[in-house]
Amino acid sequence: MKATSAIRSVKVWRAPDVMDAVMLKGQFVGHRYPPHAHDTHCLAVITGGALAVEVGGQRRLCRRGDVIVIDADVVHSGAAAGDGKWKMRVEHVQPGELAAYCDRLGIARRERFELASPFVLDAELSRHLYGVNWCSETDDDPFKRSEALACAIVGLYARRPGRSAHLPPVRNEPALVRAVRRRLSDDLHARVTLSTLASEFGVTPFVLLRAFVREAGLSPHAFQQQERLRAAMPMLRDGRPIAEVGARTGFADQSHFTRVFKQLTGVTPKVYQSAFL
Hints:
Layout: E1 7-15, E2 21-29, E3 32-36, E4 41-55, E5 58-63, E6 67-70, E7 76-80, E8 85-93, H1 95-105, E9 119-120, H2 123-138, H3 142-159, H4 174-186, H5 194-200, H6 205-216, H7 220-237, H8 242-248, H9 254-265, H10 269-274
Antiparallel strand pairs: 1-2, 2-8, 3-7, 4-5, 4-6, 4-7, 4-8, 6-9
Helix pairs in contact: 2-3, 4-6, 4-7, 5-6, 8-9
């Protein structure tokens, strides 16, 4: 998008492992986008402030957490609202890359999203799209990134009018899920993605994700993080150094360990450990 007024800060980068998307993270002040269209699909999450958006004749005042899905070649515009300040994260994806990703994921090939409305109020979808963008920016946790992308695209596919029934059927797969759980539990240092893990077990990423969530109640990545923390807690109680515990249980570094530990327990490893010393 071309700027027509003040921009506080914008970062743009390429994400080869996210459908070769062009990623954007921006903070804007008093900015306005005139009517225009891209040759890419635009998947945007508003992360702060308010933005008045018009897409194909539909208008909405978008605020934090709102998702905007604009297909390629669809004219749209936007202008700052409220106090004039707003933030967003965006993925720009070529139609051909979306189609190729659908093939790899194991769902019907398509080149456009074609939603009934470009404005989506869905906290889970917003979280997945934000997670893909943030993980890509920081080069954090490819497993989490791959899983969040799959969840986002499947969620958008299911929203397409008349197409949710076209998602492949997934039966209960207790043997598959047991095997995957054992794989992730036995190797806490496993560096996998949703695709590589699915390939190990001869299924599509879609089937693995759906079957695992149905059987285990959480995603494969979430299960891996849970198992890492379960292994870490006894070491913390024994007084081992926090950095050592994180390294021994498969976390990339101490900050990664601390972030995940706090997310799942509500406290940092240091606070948890201090209760047993």
